[in-house]
Structure formats: C-alpha cells, structure tokens
C-alpha cells in the first residue's frame, strides 16, 4: 500500500487496522452491484471470485456517494480514472481474496521491522507474509489503466494452486472486460449517463468478525517451498503473437534461491532448448517465445533453468 511505504515514521499498525476495519464499506458496495446484476446474495468465496472480478471492473467507473479506500488518493496508486465507488469495488476484491486465503480464521499480520518482506507495511495473512490481499487492488488497477488484461486477476490460483479445485470455470480471459465500454458507461460519453448507485450501509450484511491484526508477529517457520511450487504454472502469453507462453514464478523465489541465482534465472531460461526469447514483465511473470514447445515443456525448461 503506497501510503504505508512512503512514510517510514508512520504508525503502520494503525494504518493497517484502519484499512481492515473499513472492510465492510467495500464489501457492501460490491454486494450491492452483485445483487443487482445477479439477483442473488453475495458471498466472498473462491467459487464467486471470477464473477466478482468481472462485475467490479465493469462498474469501476460508476458513481456513488462513498469515501475512497485508504490506498486511493493523493498518496495512493494511479487509478486509471476510476471513481471512488470503483475503488471501493476493487477494494472489495482484496477482501474477497483475503477470505479465499483464510483471513477470517487466521487473522492478519503487518510486518514493519524486517525489510526482507516483499509486502512490508501491508496487511498480510497471519503466518503467510507472502499472501497480501492488496495484490488484488494493484492488479485490478493495472487492468483499469489498460496495462494488463483481466486474466492477470487469476493470480490467487497461482499463489495457492489448491484453490483451482473449487473454482468453477471459465477462467478470466481478455474478452471478459470491454474496457472502453466500461469507461464510457461510467463517464457519460456517447449520450450515456454514469450509472449511479444508492448504497445502504445500515443493513445487517457482513457483520462478521474481521480477524485480529498483529504488528511484527514472530514469523511462522514454514517448510521451504519446493522448486515445483516456486515455478508452478504456464499459460498462453498475453503478449501473443510476440510471445507464446507466460510463466508464473512465486514471489518467494528470490528468498528461496538467493538474489544471484534468482537474478540469473531469465538468462538461463533463454539458454534452454526451444526457448527463442525471454521477457521478464515483473518479479513474478516471465514471457517466452517457444513456438515448438508445449506448455509442459516450457514449464520443465523454466524449472531446469532455476535448478542450475
């Protein structure tokens, strides 16, 4: 959360609690849209996640009189012009992901003293500091700005592959979101007025425990992740036809392998038979052009490169 990271002297525990305690506002906004569009009650489960993503991003330029979440503002992330209501919908996706990760049962941690944590200062799932629900906000804003496609919102299923077993298809695909249409609908262009919502926060919805939050809890000693868990999945590349596959590398890989080995992974991958070119999009996503290889063969090549 940018507002956390920009001020070293801030009370990051208080900021994290404030964000967690505003959960209900975001969930009620998301539930209002869900119930209007789907005609059924909203529950933040793995089974409903993909449809919640589609709805939240399709309505991210709609209007309602609601305050923005903590990460949205002058010191926040670039939002791509979404409204405060749209930011609340996207914030609701973060709490949806938190529920999938088990936050209601596990509780929350925020790490402030140890700079090794990739999500330092952010609320993370207790005992699992690599699981930051706020990743949902970051990725959704990338989608809203047009930087990546909506398929990147599949990230929870890479962080925890066991979730795939209970997630009904189809997976999120590029065609699920017509970004220009969503923007036009929210901004009133082409003789369309922005859709305005009346949000009722007085009802009984989502009055459940949020899970407590601990600042600088002692890290849980976890078993080391295996190579197969750190390099876990391959999908068709979003950058086709320039690249054929994209490889998901767990954010814990650098800590597991060491900075030198982690930094050399892309170069070693480019040397693997059948890999013609490599592009690292960010810390967790690598695109490759390997027209003669299957997805399984690309995955095997990525693991060989990591093992060298």
TrEMBL record:
Q: What is the lineage of its organism?
A: Bacteria, Bacillati, Actinomycetota, Actinomycetes, Micrococcales
The protein depicted here goes by the name Uncharacterized protein
Organism domain of life: Bacteria
């Amino acid at each position: 959360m940018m507002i956390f990271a920009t001020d070293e002297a801030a009370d990051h525990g208080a900021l994290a609690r404030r964000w967690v305690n505003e959960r209900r506002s975001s969930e009620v906004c998301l539930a209002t849209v869900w119930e209007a569009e789907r005609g059924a009650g909203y529950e933040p489960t793995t089974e409903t996640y993909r449809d919640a993503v589609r709805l939240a991003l399709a309505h991210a330029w709609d209007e309602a009189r609601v305050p923005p979440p903590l990460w949205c503002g002058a010191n926040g992330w670039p939002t791509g012009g979404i409204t405060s209501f749209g930011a609340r919908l996207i914030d609701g996706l973060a709490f949806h992901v938190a529920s999938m990760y088990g936050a209601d049962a596990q509780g929350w941690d925020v790490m402030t003293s140890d700079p090794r944590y990739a999500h330092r200062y952010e609320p993370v799932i207790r005992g699992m500091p690599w699981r930051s629900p706020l990743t949902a906000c970051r990725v959704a804003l990338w989608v809203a700005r047009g930087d990546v496609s909506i398929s990147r919102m599949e990230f929870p299923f890479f962080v925890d592959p066991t979730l795939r077993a209970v997630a009904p298809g189809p997976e999120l695909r590029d065609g699920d979101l017509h970004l220009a249409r969503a923007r036009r609908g929210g901004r009133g262009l082409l003789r369309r007025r922005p859709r305005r919502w009346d949000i009722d926060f007085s009802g009984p919805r989502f009055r459940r425990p949020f899970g407590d939050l601990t600042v600088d809890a002692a890290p849980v000693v976890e078993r080391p992740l295996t190579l197969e868990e750190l390099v876990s999945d391959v999908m068709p590349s979003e950058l086709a036809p320039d690249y054929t596959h994209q490889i998901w590398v767990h954010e814990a890989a650098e800590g597991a392998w060491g900075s030198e080995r982690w930094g050399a992974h892309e170069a070693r991958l480019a040397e693997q038979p059948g890999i013609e070119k490599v592009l690292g999009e960010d810390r967790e996503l690598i695109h490759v052009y390997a027209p003669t290889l299957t997805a399984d063969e690309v995955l095997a090549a990525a693991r060989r490169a990591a093992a060298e």
